[in-house]
Design goal:
Belongs to the TRAFAC class myosin-kinesin ATPase superfamily. Kinesin family. KIN-10 subfamily. The protein is an alpha+beta fold. Helices cover about 35% and strands about 15% of the residues. It contains 17 helices and 20 strands. The chain binds adenosine-5'-triphosphate.
């Protein structure tokens, strides 16, 4: 059962392999399910469409994403586009079958479904009994080819959960060690490999693995994959254990925006790991598709494991799953407009301006003045998420065998102190590099070119967004989709992550973290019409407390405005913001403007660091 540690090394030198190393990017749009909107009065709005005028050029396609609620209009060049009415079969025949031929000729192949939670990744990869997914279709073709060539097919099935790898074909929760040999080849120590010669054997083995995969109910998906599931189909010639080639079929866990999922505790930790590893994957794809000399495989367990299947002479396909529609309840980006206290806002602006000017940061102040708040001001139309998943118990649908508490209990040991940091274990000459740091975000790459181009801009230029000679447009699209999937097309849940002092400052989530429990319990916005009166509070201390609370609130607001609108140079001039942080902030705000100081945690800062950062900025005012 154990995987022999022998694979052919990917070849990397030829021009051909340069092209092969690029990741082909196709989009699959999933249909709107009638079960998804409870309020039928809210009609879905199409938000992904194809620009026919661009279609057919070098087989690429321009996809136009729009969102009526945010006037977002973007256009991305992709390798192919599959509409709602296109079946998995079509994707398989056009995109996947060429990769399968390759594994019989020494090339590895990788197909992964990428997208926001609920966008149809599992549906595409795993499928159902009635609508077989890419995994089943691939296995069927591999078996046919084995029969013709006398080769043997074997499968492994594992999941990467919280940056640990588990064998799904073992009855027990068997952790697999990821080890490097002296040549830098990665080995999955102890991973099962099961010989498969018929489709019924395959179904049996795969469904037992699917039962073990970790899924859970989240605020955005009733049965959400909490791990990346990797099915590996290995082909050998039958006479030796040397692997001819292998095909990785990956159902990635979905991007999640935790202000919408309402994830807490374990779900939140899972989600952080999911997002980090997806980000690492997007960095790898970006590096491959832009011929970067360094490909950052080692930034997550997932990319490290896939090192020999992404790049080199491996052929990779990313199926980016999108919602084609958008309905008011699903829209992102909406939150209650923050009530302003204009007088104090102006005061704080002028204070900040004075401070910045004193530091020679006049551009920042102009920008702050000119931009005002970049934050959207629409109010959510509904506070409830209305997605309902069809509950099917078919063998190939996600099962809830290990959901919620069950999953939490089963994995409790994993969450005590996070992954080990910078230690290594040696075993049979193989080294497990436990490099992974809790805050992967601190390793975010510095120069991520922004792929976004407005639709209008692109039309003005009247030329393809990416050069047809390389696939950088596709890699840009990956980044854009990484953003887009989260930013525009994911369902919305207004559940935000509850913070320690939220109950105290629930009217102003922006500043909740900075209010100590001892700040006055009365509402902090108690100004009368002229902004001066204080209802129900008379003592000087009450007034002082209320004023200072409002002041803090305004300052936080100003600070966030600044972070959302300042240039990199301007950000660098603030205390506590260096090159890396500035770049991370710029990247982050492209996805979602910062609404709360807590959003800074998404760039890898702890709440203490966020606190310190703000305090340093605030202190600067009085320097
Ligand atoms: N092309 C499709 N046609 C019909 N139904 C679909 C399609 N794609 C997805 N669905 C349905 O949408 C729901 C969500 O799909 P799925 O579970 O595959 O999403 P996911 O991207 O895997 O989510 P997560 O990342 O949370 O695991 C399911 O009920 C699925 O059956």
């Amino acid at each position: 059962m154990e995987t022999p540690s022998v694979t052919k090394s990917p070849k990397t030198s030829s021009k051909q392999s340069d092209d092969a190393s690029k990741v082909r990017v196709v989009v699959r749009v999933r249909p709107f399910l009638s079960s998804e909107v409870l309020d039928k009065s809210k009609n879905p709005i199409c938000c992904a469409s194809v620009l026919d005028s661009e279609h057919g050029f070098n087989d690429e396609v321009a996809v136009y994403l729009k969102d009526q609620f945010t006037s977002r209009k973007e256009c991305y060049k992709l390798d192919s586009f599959f509409r709602e009415e296109n079946s998995v079969n079509e994707i398989f025949h056009k995109e996947v079958s060429p990769l399968i031929s390759g594994i019989f000729h020494g090339c590895n192949g990788t197909v992964f479904a990428y997208g926001a939670t609920g966008s149809g990744k599992t549906h595409t990869m795993q499928g159902t009994d009635e609508l077989p997914g890419i995994m089943t279709l691939s296995m069927s073709m591999v078996l046919d080819m084995c029969e013709m060539s006398g080769s043997i097919a074997e499968i492994s099935y594992y999941e990467v959960y919280m940056d640990r790898c588990y064998d799904l074909l073992q009855p027990k929760d068997q952790e697999i060690l990821v080890l490097d040999d002296k040549e830098g080849q990665v080995h999955l120590k102890g991973l099962s490999r099961v010989s498969v010669s018929t489709m019924s054997e395959f179904h049996q083995v795969l469904s037992s693995g699917i039962q073990r995969r970790k899924v859970a109910h989240t605020g955005l998906n009733d049965v959400s994959s909490r791990s990346h599931g990797v099915l590996v189909i290995v082909v050998t010639d039958g006479s030796s254990p040397v692997v001819n080639g292998k095909l990785n079929l990956i159902d990635l866990a979905g991007n999640e925006d935790n202000r919408r999922t309402g994830n807490e505790g374990i779900r939140l930790q899972e989600s952080v790991k999911i997002n980090q590893s997806l980000f690492a994957l997007s960095n790898v794809i970006y590096a491959l598709n832009n011929n970067k000399s360094r490909v950052p495989y080692r930034e997550s367990k997932l990319t490290r494991i896939l090192q020999d299947s992404l790049g080199g002479n491996s052929h990779s396909l990313m199926v980016a799953c999108l919602f084609s529609f958008s309905v008011p309840d699903y829209q992102l980006y909406f939150f209650d407009p923050k009530e302003e206290t204009p007088k104090e806002k102006i005061d704080m602006e002028s204070k900040l301006r004075t401070w910045l000017e004193s530091k020679g940061k006049t551009k920042s102040t102009q920008r702050m003045g000119a931009f005002g708040s970049p934050l959207p001001s629409k109010t959510p139309l509904s506070t409830n998420r209305s997605v309902k998943k069809q509950s099917s118990c078919q063998s190939y649908t996600k099962t809830k065998g290990c959901t919620d508490q069950g999953l939490a209990d089963g994995r409790r040991n994993l969450f005590k102190s996070g992954a080990p940091v910078e230690s290594s274990i040696e075993m049979n000459g193989l080294v497990e590099d436990k490099y992974f740091k809790e805050d992967m975000a601190t390793t975010w790459k510095a120069s991520l070119p922004e792929p976004k181009a407005s639709f209008e801009d692109e039309l003005k230029k009247e030329k393809p967004i990416c050069s047809p000679s390389n696939n950088s447009g596709a890699s840009s699209a990956i980044r854009a989709l990484h953003n887009s999937l989260r930013k525009v097309l994911s369902p919305i849940s207004n559940n935000s992550i509850m913070r320690p002092f939220e109950h105290i400052m629930s009217k102003d989530p922006i500043c909740m973290v900075f209010f100590d429990p001892k700040t006055p319990k009365a509402s902090h916005v108690l100004t009368s019409e002229d902004g001066e009166g204080f209802q129900g509070t008379d003592t000087p201390l009450d007034k002082y407390n209320i004023r200072s609370s409002s002041l803090k609130s305004s300052l936080v607001h100003e600070y966030l405005d600044f972070l959302n609108s300042a240039s990199k140079e301007e950000l660098l001039k603030l205390k506590g913001i260096g090159q890396k942080r500035a770049e991370h902030i710029l990247h982050l705000r492209e996805t979602t403007p910062l609404k709360s100081l807590y959003d800074l945690e998404k760039i890898g800062l702890s709440s203490k660091q966020v606190n310190d950062l703000f305090r340093r900025a605030a202190r600067g005012i009085f320097d």
